[in-house]
Amino acid sequence: MGDIVLPRRMFLWCMSVIYLAAFVSLYVQIPGLYGNDGLLPARWQLRYSGKPLGEQLLSSPTLLWLGPHLGLDTHTAMELLCLVGAALSLAATLVEGLRDSVVFFCLWALYLSMYQVGQVFLYFQWDNLLLETGFLCILVAPLTIIRGSRGVREHDRVTFWLIRWLLFRLMFASGVVKLTSRCPTWWGLTALTYHYETQCIPTPLAWFAHHLPVWWQKLSVVGTYFIEIAAPFLFFSPLRRLRLGSFYLQVLLQVLIIVSGNYNFFNLLTLTLCLSLLDDQHVHFWLRKFTYFFSIRPFVDQSPGFWSLMIFGSVICFDLQLDTTKNGISSRTAITYHQFNQFLKTVTIPCIWIGVFSLTWEMVTAMFRYACVCGFLKRFCGTVQWTVFAAATGAMFTVSLVPFTYLEHDSHAKLWPGVRRSYEVVDRFQLVNSYGLFRRMTGVGGRPEVIIEGSNDGVAWTEIEFMYKPGNLSAPPPVVTPHQPRLDWQMWFAALGPHTQAPWFTSLMYSLLQGKKDVIELIQTDVSQYPFHQQPPAYLRAHRYRYWFTQPKRWWRRVYDEEFYPTVHLGNTFLESMLDQHGLKDKSPSRRVFNSTVAQAMRWVRSQVRGVPAHTLIWTLIACSATFCLLQGLRKRNKGTTLTAEDAATVNDCTENLEKSDEQQAVEEEEGEKEEGVPSEDEMEAAEGEEDIVCDDEEDEEQEEDEDEERKEKDEILRKKGI
Questions:
Q1: Do residues 546 and 448 touch, judged by C-beta distance below 8 A?
Q2: Which residue from 358, 384, 463, 506 lies 20 to 30 Å from 277 (Cα-Cα)?
Q3: Where are its TM segments located (predicted)?
């Protein structure tokens, strides 16, 4: 693999942007989710028992333990940590020197602190993926703040390899779990006929994707298996073209998911991981030929024989045939669960060995590069660096084998017990995680959706419409990526079962009856759009409906399913019993209001962003950051071009001056020869025949001396001009 300077820089910039989106998205929702009047107050997760700070950090690694030392309650401390994380990530986005190991360690520690008290609203696979990728950034990023240098390190390809291994684990596991779950829709290749309308928050394009022909939906499932199960093995191919081909396949899949569904920063993070498959040569090719993005050539001109073999395997496994009656391609799963399980047992351990050999190759090549460095001291320091980073990379790879082998029980049992114990030690820090998205397809009989209704008299009921999730039949699906409205997501999960499986839902009903503004802003950022913004409802209830896509003018149709939550009011026996059962009543003593300078500053910042939709705020920050970086890059490029033009003009002036000096000197010499009575030209020509050999040698020597003098004079002129 070639140099990876540019892909690594692109990766670190993208990670800064993703951290920015994650922190801002979470900050906007903190009061309603974790505030003192939120659904699940974060202070319930931190029990100050008087233990030393070190023991508290070990039991629950979160910086929120420092809140009382700063004169802040847990809610305000969470806002402070989020704002610090957003500011750091924004600074890293704008300034390359801040994309540093120390900065990325701070970002990882800040997000981990949020995760520790996030409870059900923060327990998503993309939060785990961000924490794992963020920790790897600490190893990948340079240490510029301390060393003051962003130079290329010989071990960079070793640490950057961990990003490729993480991408392999993520994609391979996502493909495998679809089949190991025995979901009939995935095995029947019909999953995508349900996916677009049953996903949590679809986009408007999901409606059009949902109405594509069934044969195309089934073929798309086959393509998904091909990209997620077969293509990831090419990540470690020694052939550069195969790696680039797998890169474009992953990009294709992620882009299609982005345009058809709102999955916050998850797909953007996956695209960022894909940068580990690139090298400097290909990035330079992008910069020279931007039209390459819109060409089909990358998919077909990458070792056609190998791709033909993989396509042939797909044809055999899924019985792909031309269907002239439907003008399409018919498909069915031609393998059994037992056969796939045997395949998984066969390839899991070889996957590990592929990773071992690939990582060993990167380590050995990096070691030889350090061995070729000139100077004993540099070579010694390089060897120490190689040892440290190679050991860290090897340790991360070894620990990651535990969650990776969760895919296959027998392979997991073969792991050395010491590896599993090491994983248990670091598990609380979310350094490595198991993945597997869309394991089973939900909503086969229609998309379940919980609709909350409020009333002031118990007779006339008004639906409470959420800002993002489906509810209003005429409202088009929104586009909110990379923001994640976490309450809307949990409403989607709650609709899949009874309300007892979602204890926080009782807290939601209780908060709405009390009219808590922080919770209402989770439903509608503009509180005036909330139907009970002037007076809280006296009664609340919730029903479950089944939703389906219909015509674009109306978008949705629905039918009533069943009661989800009975009619309740403040003081209602059922509501009180559910609050007691789930421990949702606040029995802590009255909270002291902190009026420190930091607390006042946090309240002022909150007042400035209140009422601004989170996705608008995030995209504004990203757009401004990207524009600033683009203008900065163009300025540097123009400056370099201008400097080059000035250099060329200076060199030309120097050359012209030298030529004029040579001509003037020749004229002066000729005049001097005439005055001294030098022989005529005829006499000179007569003598030349006798001295040809001697003159030729002397002329060559004189010409070389003149060229050396001319070169020295040019260098001297350029040096004086400071070029």
A1: yes
A2: 384
A3: 12-30, 76-95, 102-123, 129-146, 158-177, 215-235, 247-266, 305-322, 343-361, 386-407, 612-634
